[in-house]
Amino acid sequence: MHTDPILFVFGSRRIAVPAESRTAVMNLCLRYSLFYRGMSWQEDGGFTLLTTLRTAKRMQALCQTEGVRITIHSAQGLPFLLRALCRRAGLLIGLFCILASLFLSQCFVWDIRVSGNGSMTTSEVLAELRACGLYRGAYLPALRASQLENRVLIASDRIAWISVNMDGTVARVQIIESVTIPEKEPIRPANLVATADGQIELLELYRGNAVVSVGQAVRKGDLLVSGIYDSQTQGLRYTRAAGSVFARTERSLRIEIPLAYTEKVALESECAEISLNFFDFSLKIFKRTGNSEQSCDIIETERGFDTLGLSSLPFYLTVTERIPYEESPAVRTHEQASTLAYAALERELALLSEGLLLLDKRISVTATEDGVILDCTLSCIENIAAQAEFDVLE
Asked: Which residues 6+ apart lie within 8 Å of 68 measured at CB?
């Protein structure tokens, strides 16, 4: 049932009229122009009325004079709510503090949202902004976006461009990071040497003098492309050999999975610490004392109060959970070990596939008393050329 706004502001009383008195009460209301709202019929034939405090007092006097029975319930509305709050000074002061804090917090930065960063983490960007005067809790009227941007560009070697826009109490910061150009080192001559045994399939050279040909077998460490040109007219010339030398190679992978292993069993988690954060201020409101002898994992999460669809609030909880665990011995079957071995092989092949072309693979699995051994021989084509610098002796 909805309460009339006027009755709520000035206070009201609900009057219950039994079935035998309803005609008499209605006649009194018509005769003396008694104001009422919110008539609600009851199952027994009676009804209830909502009236102002003054009307309820007058109706009670008239009904006593006429011998009409009614029941007047307790008063309700804003005056009585405020009176109840005044009896609880602590609650009233707390409510006032909350409202004052929310009002005053409109003058401060609640949150900072960073975009455009790549190599820099958000924490690093926030540290740079803090040093220049922008942080959670910064006084909004004192912030000047253009001055702040200039300070950041002067102070930071890693930020090349920045834009600060205020969206209410949220600072939206966009940055472009500086591109670091590495210093040029003196160019030294170099050869291309083989990093593995293989048979040459293809040469793609940009600089250098090839000393091997297609179809030739080479061993690890052999010279493939020389960085020295020998000319009868100009003598010796040196360069930095560059290019790719593709060869057919073989690789061997061995994966061993034991049957006996140590299993990590997580126990029931427990809350270790709770902190209330307001802007950049932190207050611990709960901490579990005592040191646990068990090994445990620590998980820290931030929980905000914006579940009502509001923008990010300036306060949040930091909850630290401790998840103890025990390490207990366990044994897997040969089938389980074999499954793990094949899964490990797939991960190895996925890493290798980025730098080579797989032609063939041969797999053998050996089951022992202690575990499973998987041997894999790969036939592939890969670039085996690597630069090896050398000094020129005059």
From this structure: 21, 24, 25, 28, 62
Q: How far apart are CA 374 and CA 251, in angstroms?
A: 14
| Secondary structure letter of residue 392 according to DSSP | P
Tokens (6 digits) for 361? 């693979």
Is there a contact between 234 and 379 (Cβ–Cβ < 8 Å)?
A: no
315-331 and 260-266 strand pairing: antiparallel
Helix (H) or strand (E) holding 75: strand 71-76
CATH of 5-81, one of 3.40.50.720, 3.30.70.980, 3.40.462.10, 2.40.37.10: 3.30.70.980
- Closest alpha carbon to 367 in 376, 358, 359, 375: 375
The CATH H-level (homologous superfamily) assignment of domain 106-177 is: membrane protein fhac (3.10.20.310)
Give the span between the Cα atoms of 380 and 357, in whole angstroms. 5
HEC secondary structure over 220-265: CCCEEEECEEEECCCEEEECECEEEEEEEEEEEEEEEEECEEEEEE
pLDDT tens per residue across span 191-233: 999 999 999 999 999 888 999 999 999 999 999 999 888 776 6
Residue 266 pLDDT more than 60?
yes
Q: How many other β-carbons are positioned within 10 Å of the β-carbon of residue 97? A: 10
Identify whether the C-beta of residue 239 lies closer than 8 Å to the C-beta of residue 223: no
The mean pLDDT of 337-351, rounded to a whole number, is: 93
According to DSSP, residue 97 is labeled H
Residue-wise pLDDT tens digits, 83-98? 766 766 666 677 677 7
Nearest residue to 312 via CA among 282, 279, 285: 279
Question: What is the chain's mean pLDDT, rounded?
Answer: 83
CA pair distance 123, 184, nearest whole angstrom = 31
Which sequence spans correspond to the domains of the chain?
A: 5-81, 106-177, 190-246, 254-260+332-387, 264-330
Rounded-to-integer distance, Cα 115 and Cα 308, Å: 25
Q: Are 368 and 348 in contact (CB under 8 A)?
A: no
pLDDT at 4 over 80: no
- At 178 the three-state DSSP class reads coil
